[in-house]
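Incident log, structure service

09:12 report received: a user says their structure output differs between two submissions of the same chain.
09:20 pulled the input from the user's history:
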Amino acid sequence: MTVRWLTSRRGAASVSVGMLAILSAGIVAGCKPAAKSGPPRGPSVRADVSDALFDSVADNLNRLEEFDINQMMPQICDRLNQWYNQKKPEVTWQRDPLIDGLPDELQTMRIMQTLDLMQYRMIDAWYLQESVWLRDVSKGARADAFDDLDVAERLFDWTIRNVYLEPERDGAGEANQHRPFETLLLGRGDALDRAWVFMLLARQQGLDVVLLATADEDGKNLKPWVPALLTRGELYLFDCRLGLPIPGPDDSGKNVATLSQVVADDQLLRRLDLDAEHPYPVTADELKHVVALVEGSPHGLSQRMALVESRLSGEHKMSLTSPGNALAERVRQLPHIEGAKLWQHPFDIWLRQSTLGPAELQAAAREVAVFQAVPTLMTGRALYFKGNLDGEHGAKVQLLNARPADSAIEDYRLPADLARRLKREDIPQHEAARIVLLRHAKQDASYWLGLICY
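09:34 re-ran on a clean worker, output below:
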């Protein structure tokens, strides 16, 4: 049977499973040149001057849900490379001193050795897509808030509502740790995933949020605790495991505790104890040695992204770089902070995913395969992040199109051309896997429609 809901007008925004699996592995090859026959349907390219190439990239990044991403992503990096080679623009950039504090095995990764490389690759295009999503989400979540703390609370609230809390992973033994792109797309993650998304959303709105960690007296054995907003000379605490800002001394619960307050009064933390057997996992005594972790990533520390960020303006403007040492210097001046360094977690993930074997790559691909099975699900997510919910081409319609009747799922058959390409004995297996994905897509679409209504 032909399933109409799999091929909506905006269904072209599907993501290939292979592409995302390679993305997760961090080993994407250099970008391929755009087809010489001309651009894909939809996007317009003004090739009269080199600046027009950059303008077209900025414009198309804002409308990726309208195009076939598998065609558009190579074109984005191709146009950026053409723009750079023709224009040779300059940007003030230097290698961030905080990088020297990373372990040698992370500093010597190839991507860390090429931070000054001025060649845009597919992995850069995906980072730009992630940043567009973060910018769009942060704009919608902020709404009309102006005060830094009010804005941070709204961004935190969005994060908690939209990233379903999963059990914490067991560190190095977990192959498929999530990057923010995957956390946003899947809508789930552990407390560190939530913290990472919250920190990046805050950055898009010009706020400085660091991750606080407790440490031994010698500053080692760091244990990540909570993200904290730096404003008014204080660090305001948000707990991603509880899903709540840590309440301050005001019994109304409308204020957010600062690091100074909880260090001075352990009762602020004890109010979070469930009972004697289940206390809140941190005490004021453990906060004698606190280290601030600054979010950074190979892309956020690169010259390539510093250059793009410096050229974006107006509706295209977004944050692409980590404040790095500049933020660390400000945090070090605050009371109760013993030091500040780069958060190692993003680099650990990069190293781990860059060495995944075939079986691990396949497992990573399965996690996002649902978006390939039902393209409208991917489009619905992208429109949801933009706040484009209603109308014929809004997120609601796209997610509704990803909810076929159970009878349609059970009666699904592979398209004839695809069935002919497969061996006869493989057809039932492929169809069974597809049916599982369609059921998964329907559940996800239903959940996200519920969030929209909420």
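09:41 both user submissions now match this output. Likely a transient worker issue. Closing.
09:42 reviewer note: The mean pLDDT is 84. DSSP finds 20 helices and eight strands in the chain.
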